[in-house]
Each structure stands twice: as structure tokens, then as C-alpha cells.
């Protein structure tokens, strides 16, 4: 059974399958990546984190609608087309 998100920060990330989006700096083990995954068992809920083990501040969590709005505005502000 999948659930709609309530408080995304109360949900565990155990079992989340992260995809890394990397680029733009040193490469190799120093490459900076953001990792994104759907929250397991949830409908339209996502978590974003830094790939570095020493990263602090935890992860960020968003609904699908929030992610879509951000992506469209970000692309538009940077003159990108999707």
C-alpha cells in the first residue's frame, strides 16, 4: 500500500534508490553530486541529498509538485529548455 505524504521528514529513507546527478567540478572522488530518490512506499514524495559523506545539514524532502515547480522555474531562469 502506498501513502500520500504527510510530514516528509518523519519518513525513513531505508530502501530508497538514489540517482546521482554529477558534474561541474574536479571529478573523481572529489566530484560533487546531488542524489535524488523517491521515498519508499510514498506517492509523489522525494528526498535530495549531497553525495559526500562529510556533508552536513541532512537531506531535503519535497512533494512531486514542489520538485516540478522548482525544476521548471530553475530551467527558465537559467535559459534552459527541457
Explain how this protein is built:
With 82 residues, the protein is of the alpha+beta class. It contains one helix and four strands, in the order ββββα. It has one helix at residues 64-77; strands spanning 19-22, 33-38, 45-50, 60-63. Strands 1-2-3-4 form a four-stranded antiparallel beta sheet. The radius of gyration is 14 Å and the shape is flat. The mean pLDDT is 84.
Number of strands: 4
Low-confidence regions: none
Helix content: 10-25%
Shape: flat
Which strand order does the major sheet show? 1-2-3-4
Summarize model confidence as the mean pLDDT: 84
Query: Helices and strands: which structural class?
Result: alpha+beta
Q: Gap between N and C termini, in Å?
A: 33 Å
Which sheet architecture does the biggest sheet show?
4 strands, antiparallel
N-to-C SSE series? EEEEH
